[in-house]
């Protein structure tokens, strides 16, 4: 078997370069940054404008030529008739040239007879007659006509040699009326062109709105889905083209919903299934613990390990369950107004460091917040746990009004530690589930599953608050975690827990 | 006399471990795997407190709660899977006195049971009979009458009423009532108080929708008045 040697290919760069130039030119010519809506609008506007311009120009051209021709023919016929009468008069009375010119009509006339120019009007002299016309009539003895510029208007000059008299008759008729009529037509056409263009733009607006509306709806639906509202669907339409989009979109959401729900249900099911054995483990461990003194030393040590890890396991399952509820959007907050300072003190009392100091700024002891007591307490318990495990020292809690908020509508609860601080770029990562990046690796020891901060972030978000981490500003090494909560304004004193049946979003 | 606890739980292993733990407290523990069994056992040997898992084969925990309530005023602790479901309120409305979520520490359970079995605070001398209009309370006898007629209250409802009666016209916050009646701390569930107040009103008010005795003080708590 033989293999063909790969032949050397002609250098492709020339072609790619050409392609690149074409692409760049096209990109420069086609304004891509202009949105679909504007592109439709521009197409409609420009289309209407071009169409009306073409129509107007054509109409004007035709109108003008037929108008002028008609007028010309009429004038020339009239001039010949007039010439005939002048000739008759001259033949009858050759001396009375003026009389022959003035006896009828309104046209301006000029008679060239025996080398003398006679005019019936000051506005028409021999200078007005172009040489070409004069030559043709006087020298060639041929009747001729010509349109000239006469003053502000155009005028028609007809020249006719008068037989038997050796005289030449010239007549000038102003074309002002014709020009006025044409101007009116022109203005009318311009106006209708402008109206057509405006209508085109209006139609463009309508059509672009219609065209873009499904896209806007799809975008809104997509962001609703991104926020976790998986029951969002696009309305089905009769439009066959749009149907493709809506059907595909809705199918996608349905698939996504099924998948997300399945994942959430799996986590939830697993955690639920773990509860029963955990229950047995916890109860049995307690029974053994009450007889700890009766056990040999090695069994005691083993029992201590067992009890410690049963508790840790229990915490992990609880956290997983809570996380799965977030994912399923099934959290219902049991909200009630809470006195922030008292609440924080109570939350610390049940945390792993119940003696943590609380420092509060002036007036902050009056702050009320709206929240789910149990869940908010977990936030602070988790932050204290994090500080304890991470800094290995004593965290401190500070309550104050938000730094950037002169209206005092938001409160900050800051958990500050004097540990090793945060590594650059770690500030957001530590809120991810099971995060163990950077110095967070230190907390991977025996405690904490890495869900504590993730849960805290979810809980704070459910309370419409924010949470973030940063290094201390006061020059001391260490991190601080800030929980920002809206201050609850109590218009009407409400009693106790108000069930918030709204599912999380 | 030893306290007798009836645990109703379909998981045999949980039942066994809870029994072991409660027996360590010196209590007698009866076990029932189903609601039907529980009713039969309760009728032959009434327990001092019943522990019911909501998820049961056959009749469920709510139904069992209601059936037991018809038979007795025994304190009932129910076990639910979650705190924030309607299960909690539904269970309390079915007649449960307190609830725990799984997995719970047996120590916590025994603490709850002890709180539920606590006796009413001894009344001050000369106050053997407390009168609030047509409502009369005789704490030492555990008796309450409305317009002369006996009102059947559960032990917890009675203790709640007595706490409120202890300081006539005083306002009791939810937290205080949770602490005094259920022995819960700051993080107790206020819904316990709300549901029990509602149940109490059904019994001691002529019109529970317009309470005249157990009244709400907006933003503060509850008060008993005549």
Can you walk through the features of this model?
Chain A is of the alpha+beta class and 505 residues long. Chain A has eleven helices and 13 strands. A five-stranded antiparallel sheet of chain A has the order 2-1-5-4-3, sandwiched between helices. The radius of gyration of chain A is 49 Å and the shape is rod-shaped. In chain B, 40% of the residues lie in helices and 20% in strands. Chain B has eight helices and eleven strands.
| Class of secondary structure makeup of chain B | alpha/beta
Radius of gyration of chain A: 49 Å
Strand order of the largest sheet of chain B: 2-1-3-4-5
Estimate the global geometry of chain A from the Cα principal axes: rod-shaped
Q: Strand share of the residues of chain A? A: 15-25%
The chain pair forming the largest interface, with residue counts per chain, is: A-B, 34 and 35 residues
Q: How many angstroms does the end-to-end distance of chain B come to? A: 38 Å
Write the H/E string of chain A, N to C.
Answer: HHHEEHEEEHHHEHEEHEEHHEEE
Summed up, the helix count of chain A is 11
What is the arithmetic mean of pLDDT of chain B? Answer: 88
Q: Kindly state the percentage of residues in helix of chain B.
A: 25-40%
> How does the major sheet of chain B shape up?
5 strands, parallel
- Give me the number of helical elements of chain B: 8
Q: What is the oligomeric state here?
A: heterodimer
Q: State the end-to-end CA separation of chain A.
A: 66 Å
Physical arrangement of strands within the biggest beta sheet of chain A = 2-1-5-4-3
Mean pLDDT of chain A: 82
The H/E string of chain B reads EHEHEHEHEHEEEEHHHEE
Low-pLDDT segments, ≥5 res of chain B:
none
Q: Percent of residues of chain A in helical segments?
A: 40-55%
Shape label of chain B: globular
